[in-house]
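R.M. (postdoc): so does anyone remember the format we settled on? I'll just put the structure tokens first.
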């Protein structure tokens, strides 16, 4: 099975499908979209206005891998459901923490 993250020079990139106003903040696991893309399905309580849902997603992903929220940012897809979240840090450690967080 493919994974929705990859290592990069600065750390890791996580491809997420975000559901804002989802009732709770949670990572629901790895999902495959109809086009075959593999994403990390996430939901947050925050509404998709003024970047609140994006900030909540960054906090959720950072908490899942055990890093500070300031080390996570939306790198692509700020106004779309499919987003790329960039995590800064040691790539191997981030990838291992991501794998544990969805296991």
């Amino acid at each position: 099975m493919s994974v929705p993250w990859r290592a990069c020079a600065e750390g890791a990139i996580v491809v997420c499908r975000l559901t804002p106003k989802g009732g709770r903040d949670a990572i629901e696991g790895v999902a495959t979209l109809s086009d075959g893309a593999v994403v990390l399905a996430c939901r947050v309580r925050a509404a998709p206005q003024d970047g609140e849902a994006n900030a909540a997603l960054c906090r959720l992903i950072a908490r899942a891998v055990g890093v500070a929220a300031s080390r996570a940012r939306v790198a692509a897809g700020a106004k779309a459901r499919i987003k790329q979240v960039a995590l800064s840090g040691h790539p191997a450690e981030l990838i291992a923490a991501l794998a544990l967080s969805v296991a």
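R.M.: ...and that's the designed sequence above, right after the tokens. Also worth knowing: The mean pLDDT is 93. Residues 5-101 form a domain with the Conserved Hypothetical Protein Mth637; Chain: A; fold (CATH 3.30.1200.10).
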